[in-house]
Specification:
The chain is built from 1 helix and 13 strands. By secondary structure, it is an all-beta fold. The protein has a domain of 145 residues: Sandwich (Immunoglobulin-like).
Length: 208
């Protein structure tokens, strides 16, 4: 069977800094993780993104074609009230007609250190995730982390399974808040081609 070569474009914004990788697992938060009050990467930062990891894969689906599966995991340390805006999360979703992207397996947890113990406050996904329409093709799912305080660590992850293969997720390695570790992984079949556009003046720490 002959398969067409599909060409798509993904935008990657590059601004990497020197950092050592430490594998972070969802929910693995300990007392020591709250110790830092300022970070050397930016001593004036109101919040620091500890880890931001995305993975995109092209996988076969039950429709006889392929789906784009994007997984995103992010952990943030809120240092003071001026960083509270990071506790409001918006997930952009594409749609056309009756077909639309939907976030799956969404988890979001706020961690606070109380009397030497890590206390979790979990987001009620059924009751506290809301949808807004941006235009005919774009919508957004929004939520706010519960019980956020100065010094809180917040963490979320979700998966988007999409039939829109041209909507490969872009990635920003740095932004308004410093990221200690930012990583994007992509796996595609050989007969699909993506054109990668990179913006930024710094080189990646790892590029494979």
């Amino acid at each position: 069977m002959k398969l067409p070569l599909l060409l798509f474009t993904v935008l990657i914004t590059s601004a990497a800094t020197g950092q050592s990788y430490n594998k972070i697992r969802f929910g693995d938060v300990a007392e020591k993780d709250f110790a830092a009050k300022i970070y050397s990467v930016d001593s004036s930062a109101n919040a620091v993104i500890i880890s931001d990891i995305g993975t995109s894969k092209i996988e076969g689906n039950s429709k006889g074609w392929f789906s784009l599966v994007f997984k995103h995991h992010k952990r943030i340390h809120i240092l003071n009230k001026n960083g509270f805006d990071l506790s409001n999360v918006s997930i952009r979703l594409f749609s056309t007609g009756d077909d639309e992207e939907k976030p799956e397996k969404l988890k979001a947890v706020t961690y606070n250190l109380e009397n030497g113990k890590v206390v979790e406050s979990k987001l009620d996904v059924k009751e506290n995730v809301f949808k807004d329409k941006i235009d005919k093709n774009w919508g957004v799912k929004k939520f706010t982390f519960p019980n956020v305080k100065e010094g809180s660590i917040i963490e979320y992850e979700y998966t988007i399974t999409s039939d829109f293969l041209s909507n490969l997720q872009p990635w920003e390695f740095q932004g308004a808040y410093p990221r200690l570790w930012s990583e994007y992984n992509l796996s595609v079949p050989e007969f699909m081609g993506y054109v990668f556009l990179t913006q930024g003046y710094k080189k990646f720490d790892l590029e494979e």
